[in-house]
Amino acid sequence: MATRTRRRRRSDGFTLIETSLALIIIAVGVLALVEAQQAFIRSNDWSSHAATANYLANEVRELMRRLPKHDPVTGLYFESGAGGDVLRGWGPDGGEFGIEDFDDVDDFDGLRLAFNGTPGLADGDLPGPIDAFGAVIPQINNDGAVEMSAGGTPVPLRGWTQRVTVRKVDPDNPGIVYPSDHVIAAGGGSAGVAVDRFPLRVTVDVFFRGVFDTEDTLVTSVTWIVP
What pLDDT shows up at residue 83? Predict the structure, then answer.
């Protein structure tokens, strides 16, 4: 009788192996659920970043859409000097210190519009990112209000940077890039191409830097040709 009782008690419970297997199965299931949730969050974050980056790139494109290729007053030209001809008019001209002063496409070449940018063009950057009107896009809090700095100014959209590159390209093949002072001399039945008559290829690269990141990550690029 005692023997039968011991056997019944042993069969009514779980062995250590069975308990361990159950714990392993539960742990694997929980781990898979956590990994799936993390993958969903990463995918959702990337989709959100991609949409924001495309918006920021096209805001710059819209801002530049109405501008001529080169300065409407002085143009793009060569100035003769003791050391030879020097190209004038590419990039920001005298008296142009910010977005509100830019009046042609080549003014934007090499410009960086960054959340950590500083006023003035001496270091090649300006506060950003900007919208189609040239205004810095502010950081919006969870309550829908614009976040303000300690100095009372709006905080730029955190982590985002727009970088603009302008290149002269071949009139017949936009894949061929020329330096800004390039000309095509007339000859062989061709009228040639003057220094200010080349199409321009504009590229806006949009980068994001997370709170724990040490460098910017390219999210998207938008390119178009100004004929």
Answer: 77
What residue has token string 């998207």?
220
Domains identified in the chain, total number: 1
- pLDDT at position 116: 93
Please give the sequence-ordered ranges of beta strands (E in DSSP) within the chain, or none if there are none. Answer: 77-81, 84-88, 112-114, 125-127, 160-169, 177-178, 200-208, 217-226
Q: Is residue 211 part of a domain?
A: yes
Q: Are strands 84-88 and 77-81 parallel, antiparallel or unpaired?
A: antiparallel
**CB burial readout 17-51, b (16+ within 10 A) else e:** eeeeeeeeeeeeeeeeeeeeeeeeeeeeeeeebee
| Tokens, residue 141 | 């809090």
- For residue 15, being part of any structural domain is answered with no
> Is residue 26 one of the residues assigned to a domain?
no
The answer to whether position 222 is within a domain reads: yes
pLDDT in tens, 9-37: 555 566 878 777 878 888 888 887 777 77
